[in-house]
Amino acid sequence: MASLCQQGAVVLFGVLVLYAVGFLPMSAAHNAAHDTRHSFVFPCH
Q1: Rounded CA separation 33/14 (Å)
Q2: What is the C-alpha end-to-end distance of the chain, expressed in Å?
Q3: How far apart are CA 34 and CA 43, in angstroms?
Q4: Which of 4, 8, 22, 23 is deepest in the core (most CB within 10 A)?
Q5: How far apart are CA 4 and CA 42, in angstroms?
């Protein structure tokens, strides 16, 4: 079973990736994460 620290690191990494892709100007990266961002109420446009 993973420790709480490991789980927190994975969650933090996932959130950072999600928000980083939200600010990238590439339309391919934007479109790849579009539905996921909207499901977390991240305004992307």
Answers
A1: 12
A2: 39
A3: 10
A4: 22
A5: 26
Q: What is the tens place of the pLDDT at every residue in 1-43? A: 679 999 999 999 988 887 776 676 667 666 666 767 777 776 6
Q: CB neighbours (10 Å) of residue 42? A: 14
What is d(CA 23, CA 7) in angstroms, rounded to the nearest whole number? 25
The two three-digit tokens of residue 34, written as one number: 């579009």
Of 4, 7, 3, residue with least CA distance to 15: 7
Distances from the Cα of 13 to the Cα of 17, 20, 43, 45, angstroms: 6, 10, 20, 23
